[in-house]
Amino acid sequence: MIYSTKYRDLIKSTCEDLKLPFDWLYIYAQSFAESGREIGNDIFEQDRNAKSPVGAIGIMQLMPENCKYIDPYDPNQNIIRGISLDLDFYNIWKLEEGIEKIKFMFASYNAGPEDILHAQTITGRNAQILTGRSALATNIWDNVASYLHYVTGYQNAQQTINYVKRILNIYAELKGLENDK
Fold first, then answer.
1. Are 81 and 62 in contact (CB under 8 A)?
2. Which residues of the chain are modeled with pLDDT < 50?
């Protein structure tokens, strides 16, 4: 797969301006997971005019309630707002810095932080009931993901789980390409 660099500099500079505490390539990968489409010859590009069946708009697939004061079809405004949301979601999780916190951020972006928090609570409660102690760490995304269907239903839970995996897979490809330079 060849990833278009059309919005690369904009995403990188916005991440730097907002002082993201993690590798900007995660957001770049997210942009492809959100609105990426093949434009031919194995070239993958973000679609500034993308609109999902549920109404999400633009490169970062913003929901209408998250883009009231911006033009969601303007790549600059859409990317800035999407990254700002990511940073908000990253900061609500009181976890150690690292990949688990990033996974929770992406899950929150996709399903909403309330649903992820609810699934996290259920994970802790069920571990307590089943074992008499908190055997499942509620700060590990895979543990919480296994209980997400109780909150969102199977289809939506699987969509969120696949979304997080897809971003991480794209990130690994992009990271490999960056390291090859």
1. yes
2. none
| Cβ pair 167, 29 in contact under 8 A | yes
For residue 175, give both structure tokens.
């990271």
DSSP assignment of 66-83 equals G-TTS-TTSHHHHHHHHH
Residue range 3-21, pLDDT digits in tens: 999 999 999 999 999 999 9
pLDDT (tens digit per residue) in 51-78: 999 999 999 999 999 999 999 999 999 9
Q: Which stretches of the chain are assigned E, i.e. beta strand? A: 2-3, 36-40, 43-46
Closest CA to 109 of 33, 17, 169: 33
- Hey, what are 19's tokens? 């002082």
The secondary structure of residue 97, as a DSSP letter, is S
Nearest to 115 by CA among 81, 156, 167: 156
Asked if 165 and 20 count as a contact pair (C-beta separation under 8 A), the reply is no
What angle is formed at CA 143 by the lines to CA 140 and CA 148, rounded to 5 degrees? 115
Q: Residue 127 corresponds to which tokens in the numbers above?
A: 């571990």
| Residue of 158, 160, 59, 66 lying closest to 108 (CA atoms) | 160
Enter the tokens of residue 5. Answer: 């660099």
